[in-house]
Amino acid sequence: MMPLACILNAKGYKVCGSDRSNDQGLSQDKFKALQSLGIGLAPQDGSGINASTDVLVVSAAIEDSVPDVKAAKEHGLKILTRAELLAQIFHDSKTSVGIAGTSGKTTVTGMIATILSELDCNPTVMNGGQVKNLENKQLGKNANFLIGDGDIFVSEMDESDGAFPLFSPTIAVLNNISIDHKTMDELKTLFGDYVHRAGVAVLNLDEENTASLPRPENAITFSIKNKEANLYASNIELGEDNCSFELDGVAVTLNVPGKHNVSNALATLGVAKALGLNIDEACQALSKFSGIKRRMETVGTKNGVTVIDDFGHNPDKIAAGLATAKQNGARIIAMFQPHGFTPLRLMGEEILESFKTYFTKDDILIMP
After folding, report:
1. Closest to 235 measured CA to CA, from 111, 206, 227
2. How many CB atoms lie within 10 A of CB 324?
3. What is the number of helices (H) and of strands (E) in the chain?
4. CA–centroid distance for 127 within its chain
5. Smallest Cα–Cα separation from 259: which of 238, 230, 288?
6. Is residue 323 within a helix (H) or strand (E), and if so which, with residue range?
7. Closest Cα to residue 102, out of 164, 166, 154, 145?
8. Closest among 159, 139, 173, 365 to 265, alpha carbons compared
9. CB 332 within 8 A of CB 359
10. Confidence check: pLDDT of 60 > 70
11. Which segments within 181-219 are labelled E, that is strand?
12. Under a CB-based contact definition with an 8 Å cutoff, are residues 155 and 83 in contact?
């Protein structure tokens, strides 16, 4: 919601809002930053809705019982969801780039934002995580959004809230399809329709569910296993905190670890190809990407123990993190916090399989 508020504010709209966290005195730095931009804050008691309000925009966490919603209905105001507003702004741009998939979309969005920023394309970007190397005028370092004056709008696409069909990107990335918020049949239908609505689809041939979808004629494919893909990574080398590979003879160095990030980089370069950018320059710009906050982020090291914070919560994300941690034979002590009862009921067995696959007898799993 915060990036949307800032984007609309930058476009000249009068923006104000409420948040229960603000009422509770939490996350005050964030709310002070909004106020510094001229965005008004009101208590979440309905008092912020008045005759001058045109539209109320609500996140998926806002129930009909919230006083602001009640007040908006009493005033007969139009009520939009976050996704509906994002879709409107997204499609207003000349070129819209949507990044989807069960895993990796935040990182790919950050990588694309890095390339476009480095190549002076002035993109507008909406991302689900903070990109360590990006800085915006609104909030400073570790930005999760950019407000550009170019023609490109890049956004992470979230399939979990049912709003996915609202988006028809110029360029659509699909990293992978695995069980997460919905059943596999639901996900295949959602993602299959999504890539066929796009102008150009960028698809991962290494993930069987994505590779099995009916492929649009205009697809750009990428792979670290299949040499028939349009973008194929060869000579992959994995370091503790970096990795490298070659793409058609061009050396690419990443300042993030793990084979999964080679795939993420290929997806990003697929977007660069679809946009008609110079691939050599795009590869060079990609080396400026330094990762996403809470994505295999090293907190610190003491007495030979490295502490890593990772947001991974579904089987694929957990497997990618464990594979990266294990690539040099390290011992793992993992504290895993499930995201709730429903996700655990839906994919609990698959999550445990991920741990079983990568754990050896000296590793420890602690789960509340």
Report:
1. 227
2. 24
3. 12, 20
4. 5
5. 238
6. helix 315-326
7. 164
8. 173
9. yes
10. yes
11. 200-204
12. no
125/148 Cα distance (integer angstroms): 8
> What are the CA-CA distances from residue 92 to residues 75, 136, 155, 159 (Å)?
28, 21, 13, 21
User: Residue 341 has what pLDDT?
Assistant: 84
Contact 204, 316 (CB under 8 A): no
Residue type, 310: D
Contacts of 115 (CB under 8 A, 6+ apart): 268, 272, 277, 282, 285, 286
**Cβ neighbourhood burial of 282 (10 Å; 0-12, 13-18, 19+):** buried
- Give the amino acid at 85: L
Question: Which tokens sit at 21?
Answer: 């966290």
Per-residue pLDDT reduced to its tens digit, 215-272? 998 999 999 999 999 999 999 999 888 999 999 999 999 999 989 999 999 999 999 9
pTM of the model: 0.88
Contacts of 341 (CB under 8 A, 6+ apart): none
Would you state the structure tokens that stand for residue 50, as one six-digit string?
């008045």
pLDDT at 128: 86
As a whole number of angstroms, the distance between CA 184 and CA 219 comes to: 22
